[in-house]
Amino acid sequence: MTRTNPPRQDRSSSSTGTPTREEVQRAIREGGRALVDLAERLGPQLKEGRLTTSQIRNIYGMVKQMEIRGFDANEFVLLKPKLAYAAARANVPGADTLKEVLTCAIDEVGTDATKFARFVDFFEAILAYHQAAGGR
Amino acid sequence: MDRHNPVILAALLHDIGKFGERTAEPLPVWAEPFHHEARYTHEPYSAVFVEEQLGRWPLDMTTVRRLVLKHHAPSLPDELLVSLADRLSAYERAEAEGDREGARGRAETALRTVFSRLLGVSADGARYHELADLSLDRRALFPRPDAVGSVESYRALWERFTSEVARVPLGDLRTLLAVLRRFTWVIPSDTRRDLIPDISLYHHLKTTAAIAACLVREELGEFDVRTLHDGLTNRWKKAPLTPREEELLHRPLCALVKGDISGTQDFLYLLTSRGAARGLRGRSFYLQLLTETIAEWILRQFQLHPTNVLFVGGGHFYLLLPYRAAAEHLDGIQQRIARVLWKIHKGDLSLLVASVPVAAIDFLEEEAGGNAFAAKWGDVSRRVNEEKQRKWQDLGQEGMRRELFISRQRGMTAEDTCQVCHNAGALEIQDDVRKCQHCRGFEELGRLLRDPTHLVLFTVPEAEPPEQADWRDALRAFGTEAWLIHEGDVLPRRPPGATEARVYTLDATDFLDEDTCRRFRWGDLPVSYDFRWLADATPRKHDEHGQEVIAEFADLAEASQGVKWLGVLRMDVDGLGDVFKNGLGAQATISRMSTLSESLRLFFEAWVPRLCREYNRFQQGKKDALYLIYAGGDDLFVVGAWSVLPELAERIRDDFRELVGGDHVTLSAGIAIEHPKFPLYQLAANARHALDDQAKEFQRSNGRAKDAVSFLQTAMGWEEFARIAGWKDALLQMLNPQGEEPALPRAFLMRLMEIHALYAGNRARWRRAQRLREITHEQMEELIHYDKWQWRLVYHLSRFAERHEQHRETIDRLLREIVQQDGFIARLRVLARWAELLTREG
After folding, report:
1. ipTM of the assembly?
2. Phi, psi (deg, nearest 5) at residue B171
3. What does the pLDDT look like over B568-604, one tens digit per residue?
4. Which residues of B touch A128 (CB under 8 A)?
5. Which among A5, A35, A132 has CB closest to B776?
6. Inter-axis angle of helices B222-237 and B77-89, to 10 degrees?
7. Nearest-angstrom CA–CA distance, B586 and B305
8. Cβ(B305)–Cβ(B174) under 8 Å?
9. Which residues, other chains included, contact B554 with Cβ-Cβ below 8 Å and sequence gap of 6+?
10. Chain B residues touching A40 at Cβ < 8 A
11. CB A108 within 8 A of CB A100
12. B105 Cα distance to chain centroid
């Protein structure tokens, strides 16, 4: 396996707005710093967007079950409508942000099991930084 | 020529006038004419000292006076010998250049520590010794950047010095040498403005006397002495040398002899736990005494004074012997040593001896056209290591065949062997344990080492050791009988055939007081007085009868904070060979080598035990925590309550750093800890592994290596260790808060360990990938750092902070310190484990 080296950038200089499609794609493609930095940025944003831990956990629980069962691309893609439904129900800005980011991430995973593993990590990291930001 | 040759005493005192001169007292009127005979101002002062202080000595003192007076303007052969020895010890540039002001005494110049010369320390970083007599006072022992001398301090020191000299038994060079060591150890030998004053007068005087003794025994003809003297001058001036001068400069004059005890590791640690603790200190002290006794015995074979011991400690010695005599007799000496040690220790211990020839050219600094002495120091060590490949060859063909190649039945069943060391011998049951004469003897020696005030060594006729010999027989075989004396003890009787006694005051430098001189006398037996460090920190306890005894390892473990485990700490100086060989570089004269080795010895033998004793609080009704098995040369070995060892190691390192004044000479440590039932030899081996394979192999990201400690199987630089130790304290504060504050649960530590395991697993994965060249080094670094452990740590620590609001600030700070780019995630296990062991019950 040969990996490309992510361009070095100082964490403090990274953007503070809603993540772009490219940023999410890179996090899933490369993992590592791109993933950690993005999750760290997202955590407080989601908290500010009034998304609660239990709302995140509902979706996260489904992802973990998929991971335990083994990656199935057909099943995984169905997460997108579930995200849309959950976001509509929650009706807070944070839920929309999460839906957009994860939908983009799901597209990037496609049928690649390695990327799926990184998706699970990304989601777990989002949960952690949301918690650290004081999310309840 | 005998050992009382005036040349040797004159060499020892030739520059003592530098000390007297810096008091700024004028010469007595009767000595004014001395100026006409001398070249510089200090020689008349030396002559006055000889006349006034040693006038009654039963030697040809008129000659001694003439020799010290003329050592810079020699004309007669004996004057040339003193002058030669002086130049070979520390070449004085002035006389070759015809500098009339040369070697002038300036009282304000303080001795710059020899460590400040090593490996290019800048002048700004240099440190200086306060002018004081040798003592265990911190101010005296540790150099400072701002120390200066003064006429007043020289006067005060001179007054005390001369009053002590007046007590020296007439004609006794050994006692005089000890007085010189005490009072001139930090007097700079040379104070000219353009020279670095880093040679101690004591070491210059001592090594000059050592070289002089060799020159005297070499019996050089008058013409050769003159030619060699001229050759040295011409070499310095870079003038052409005559063939004879060249030949003499390269002719061996001395032999540098090294002796090294082999087998000490097994001898000390390959013991069962049955009574091992009680005998261990005795064993360690015996090794030290044996090394010194053999060194002294060799000197006696050559009729030399203790001036010719360049260094003894750490299980080895370096001697300077006359070349021809050494070449003739050294084989026989090696054979006797091998035979006696074989008979007593049956191969468990041996002493390897090797020598290299030293010519005049080898003594000189490279600047003076010489080879610098350090190369010889390295050569002889290499030779000793080669000897290790030919161990026991000194037994001779027949001896080796008889002892090594003929099978012999020794103890077959458990009843035939000692339960402590597993050797056969004269077995006796003591305290329900079957012990051989060696183990019983070492236990007795261990008991005798409790608070002795003096060590008395009698020189006695060499006695063939009996079949079941113990430590006393071993020393007697080399002509020494040893007694440890305690407060209120009756003095030992004068042994039959004793020819002299040496009385060492232990752990104090005030060794020539009236009481000592009056008390330690045996009729007309010549007695010398000296002082030495015992390197002792022995734990005690009360046994079931209320008697004070040496505490067992289990007792030390009980003194631990948290889990009751035992630990071993080993430390030594990093790359000592390089420090000697390359550190002093082109300036490595014998005087500087002597100054350097003595400074290290002083730290390990005198200062380290003092630090250790601070942890033994039996006298204050508390438990003793440490057992200093060995400290000397450049290393140490301590067994103790595990929780004390990291702190002790850090204190020793901090003080060592202060001593050398920076990070150019460093110290590493290995700590191993285990349950007290774990065999000591295994614990000792683990600590050795921690030191040699982990701490010494440690390398920082900037490439700087060693200067590290390995604790809990993890090597780290001292700077990082201090950081971890600070966080350990902060964790303990949260786990056991003062007052009403609720404690952080110990589950916090488990969580930290889990996170470290996650980190370590990820690190192993990416390192493997990098080894297979799947990723670059830079990628590896990034993938190790930015991974699951990071958000898991953030998640768990923020949960703990949320639930324990009063500790939030500390937890947040800890989180930041771990996660940041140079954070200590890699050492998180050490931190968590350390705190966990400190807070675990039982």
Report:
1. 0.89
2. 80, 5
3. 999 999 988 778 777 777 777 888 888 888 889 999 9
4. 791-792, 794-795, 798
5. A5
6. 40
7. 29
8. yes
9. B566, B676
10. 791
11. no
12. 31
